[in-house]
Amino acid sequence: MYEYLNNEKSLTKARIQQIQLARLKETVNYCKTHSNYYRKTLKGFNTNSIKSINDISLLPFTEKDDLSSQSESFVCLKDSEIADIVTTSGSTGKPLIYKMSEIDLKRLAYNEMLCFKCASLTKEDTVLLAVTLDKCFIAGLAYFLGLQAIGASTLRVGPTSIEMLIQTAIATKATTIIGVPSYLLKIADYIRLDGIPAKALNIRKVICIGEPIRNKDLTLNHAGKILSSSFNNARIFSTYGITELAISFCECTSGMGGHSHPEIIYTEIVDENSNVLSPGKEGEVVATVFGVTGMPLLRYKTGDISYIMNEKCSCGLATPRLGPIIGRKQHKLKFKGTTVYPQAIINTLASIRDITNYCIIATSNIDLSDNIEIKMSLSDPALSDTIRNKLTAVLKVTPAVTIMDYKDIDTLKSSVSLRKKTSFIDKRQIIK
After folding, report:
1. Is residue 146 within a helix (H) or strand (E), and if so which, with residue range?
2. Starting at the edge strand that comes first in sequence, how are the strands of the sheet with 300-306 ordered?
3. pLDDT digits (tens, 9 = 90+) for 198-252
């Protein structure tokens, strides 16, 4: 099923389009036959009208609200054919339930194996998997399956105590760590404060999930720079994953965007009017999955903002790449006449060492503009005016700032989702 990608570097642009055209037709026919949702929305659609991959524009978009409100109508298999069920975190709304077959799990493992190959992992690597495998979380499962497929030695440490993780890393001479940047930064702080010598750790690769470690120009942001320097100048890899697509994009050693794998996904970027944008233009990420049997999705609007790069990568791959996630469409803020994405604020806050914890809260004004309040804890409360000035200098606007206790902010960050903390709380929908 996946023989084409055993040697991705042999794929030309023309061959990629051939593969994707064939896959698209197969997927549309499968959806029309097995999905109640697509049987209805694609009624009367003739698959033969698809002559090239660009004809994907003939298909309707699938919205997140459609999947959330009609999830069972997307399921293409009997309950007895479902092998695993995962959910999204629910940090941006109602958690979505996603059902996978054994074939889907093999596809998931295959995608992660290709991602890890991009990140130069081999069977010689020993990997600390600092990601939870429970709580119906897809990432830990996906990475474990991918590491098994590539043959690497895996330590399923999860987001455990930092001291235990470091002791395990030293004892096993682990070469790689996979985790959420905010957690990895805590490990970096522990290493620095405890005076652990660089030679004690053998970490050479750090694979970051769930949070961006690059700016939109592909340079490392503050978190990425700290992680690189903290782990013996280890190579840092950014990834982007979507539960509903059972997919992730991972950088190669060139660090120039997350490679997609054309036999299992086709990605588009659209503007606010749903017009497809050319490579390099920023807009909403839209994706169509290939090879999924449980809950396949056509032209699924993810709500995430990024851009696509189609030129051949310096690593030798001709496969399309996805840039860093700039923000989420529903999170876009209109503040004092300026468009601001929370991620830009987060990047700024993360770069100021005196800020020990923070949470951004957005509310609405009656004039359809937004309010932004930043609740933060400081190493020295006397620095509050200095921090405000730094925020104004970078953001060009001045949000309201409230100084709070570290633990109280942690409580706020845990109030949205039981599974993970969030640094951005959107209260605008409550008022509207």
Report:
1. helix 138-150
2. 265-270, 283-289, 300-306, 327-328
3. 778 999 999 999 888 998 899 998 889 889 888 888 999 999 999 999 999 999 9
Q: What pLDDT does residue 93 have?
A: 56
Taking the C-alpha atoms of residue 304 and residue 331, their distance in angstroms, rounded to an integer, is 9
- Nearest residue to 388 (alpha-carbon basis) of 428, 348, 419: 348
According to the model, what pLDDT value does residue 283 have? 95
User: Which fold does the domain 1-325 belong to in CATH?
Assistant: Rossmann fold (3.40.50)
Coil vs helix vs strand at 96: coil
Question: Residue 289: which of 275, 308, 258, 268 has the closest Cα?
Answer: 268
CA gap 320, 262 in Å, rounded: 8
Q: Is 205 left (phi over 0), alpha (psi -120 to 50) or beta?
A: beta
pTM for this entry: 0.83
Between CA 265 and CA 257 the distance in angstroms is 16
d(CA 392, CA 38): 48
**Helices 102-118, 138-150: crossing angle, 10 deg rounding:** 70
332-431: CATH topology is GMP Synthetase; Chain A, domain 3 (3.30.300)
Contact, 323 vs 212, CB < 8 A? no
Q: Give the pairing of strands 321-322 and 327-328.
A: unpaired
Give whole-number Cα distances, 40 to 73, 112, 148, 370, in Å.
Answer: 10, 33, 39, 38
Dihedral angle sign, alpha carbons of residues 12, 298, 209, 309: positive
Return the domain boundaries, the chain. 1-325, 332-431
Chain CA centroid to CA 165, Å: 24
pLDDT tens per residue, range 244-295? 999 999 999 999 999 999 999 999 999 999 999 999 999 999 999 999 999 9
Q: Which two tokens stand for residue 376?
A: 């933060």
The single-letter DSSP state of residue 179 is E
183: pLDDT strictly greater than 70: yes
Name the 3-class secondary structure at 118.
helix
Q: How confident is the model at residue 21 (pLDDT cuts 50, 70, 90)?
A: very high
Q: Which residue type sits at 327?
A: G
CB 287 within 8 A of CB 266: yes
Residue type, 158: G
DSSP 38-90: HHHHTTT--GGG--SGGGGGGSPPB-HHHHHHSHHHH--S-GGG--EEEE---
Say if residues 55 and 292 touch (Cβ distance below 8 Å). Answer: no
